[in-house]
Design brief:
- This protein has about 240 residues and is of the alpha/beta class.
- It has two domains: about 70 residues; about 160 residues, Glucose Oxidase, domain 1.
- Helices cover about 40% and strands about 20% of the residues.
- Strands 1-7-3-4-5-6-2 form a seven-stranded mixed beta sheet, covered by helices on one side.
- The longest helix has 27 residues.
- The N terminus is likely disordered.
Amino acid sequence: MKRILQLVLAMGVLFGQAYDYQKLSKIIQNDDQVAKDLAHLCDFIGGRPTGSEANLASIDWTYGKFQEYGVSVSKQAFEMPGFWLERSSKAKITGDLNFTPKVTALSFSTRSNIAKKYPLLDGGRGEKQDFSRLGSRAGGAIIIIETNELVNIDGLFKEYSDAAKIEALAYEAGVAGVVYMSSRPKKLLYRHNASRAYENTLPMLVMAREDGKRCLRTLRNKKSGQLFIQMDIKVKNKG
């Protein structure tokens, strides 16, 4: 009898899952509804870094949408190894250039607030020969890295792979921080993770592609520049 009851319960669970799947399939195939939900998520909730107010709001919104669609849903808490959130990041170029570039911080960039000016150097593509060219000048300076424009998913994964190599070399060279030229045009910014995640201690930024090109043109024309960085970061480690 116990075995029969277990089978009945298992069949009930599977039937419920299949029923939920059928409901979700109908919703997903409704392009208008998907577009409407996505628009609300992007326009009214926005970016959702883990642990942020927007992140928590998006969870409640999604939970409510599943209930609205008649799909069984539950919320489950989990613990992260640490908390990192950018409140704001600003930069200013001075020297032979004087302008305010558009920037954002990489996730896990620096573990404390910063308001400091650094020498800005041309880091090329961030390869070994680029760091060899800079030599001891790299120590204590911010380097700006040139990137290819992103055109496909392969390029995205190459960005991840290249960043890990670049940042390892940057630590070895003793740089004060790394700035990546955005791989997207039209001043579009995005947020990758610093490759060392919670172990990262350096400020790392993405700079609008057009602004990054302007910096590199100047530096490659035998001019000099400094980068003032102001970062307001909220960090909380586990325990």
